[in-house]
Amino acid sequence: MDPDLMQFVEEGKDKKDISEANETKNSKAHLNTLVAISVALLATFMGICKVKDDNIVQAMQQAQADKIDNYSWYQARNIREEVARATVAQLTAQAASGPPQAQAVYQEQIKTFQALAQEEADKKKIQRADADKADKTYNELNYHDDQFDLSDAMLALAISLLAMTALTQKRWLFVIAMFPTVFGVLMGLAGLLAWKIHPDSLTRLLS
């Protein structure tokens, strides 16, 4: 009995189809593994950055409160100084027209209010310096807060693209997801390690 040549062709075709199916399955499994690992690493990194960013936000709030308090004290001391100097001027005018026996009292009061005015002026300078220091601290912290905000936005975009990759099994989507991933990780490291990386134009666009 002659062998059926079509049988061998069909068997070879079936083996080829099975081999291609296995390759496709392995390729999808490999891509899904990459996506899962990437998402897990990014989520962990975002968690670490979140803790640091929350601490920075708390420090910013404290610096803002210190600045407001110091500026309030600055204004209060400025008013006290002006009142004391006005009192000195008033006492000086009264002393000029007052009786000789009252001059000693006037001079004593003038010296007292002059000392009070000088004391408030000195304290006012300290309050102003403390307010400026708190404002500088706030701006420095805000610089790093912007870095974490950019990192969070970019990594959220990357995770969304990775989720689409897992659904569509498109490798080119995985490649695209790596761009915001790299940028997001870079900005996160900049915030954690105090690197001077701050895309001002992008920050202004998002703020």
Chain-wise SSE layout:
Layout: H1 5-97, H2 103-168, H3 171-193, H4 200-206
Helix pairs in contact: 1-2, 1-3, 2-3
Description:
With 207 residues, the protein is mainly α. It has helices spanning 5-97, 103-168, 171-193, 200-206. The chain is rod-shaped and about 115 Å long. The chain starts with a helix and ends with a helix. The model has no long low-confidence stretch (mean pLDDT 86).
What keyword list fits this structure?
207 residues; mainly alpha; 0% strand; 4 helices
> What is the average of the pLDDT values?
86
**Gross morphology:** rod-shaped
Helix content: over 70%
SSE-based structural type: mainly alpha
The radius of gyration over CA amounts to 36 Å
The total of beta strands comes to 0
Element pattern in H and E: HHHH
Through-space gap between termini: 83 Å
**Total of helices:** 4
> How would a crystallographer describe the biggest sheet?
none
List the uncertain runs.
Answer: none
Question: What share of residues are in beta strands?
Answer: under 5%
Brief summary of the model shown:
The protein is an all-alpha fold and 207 residues long.
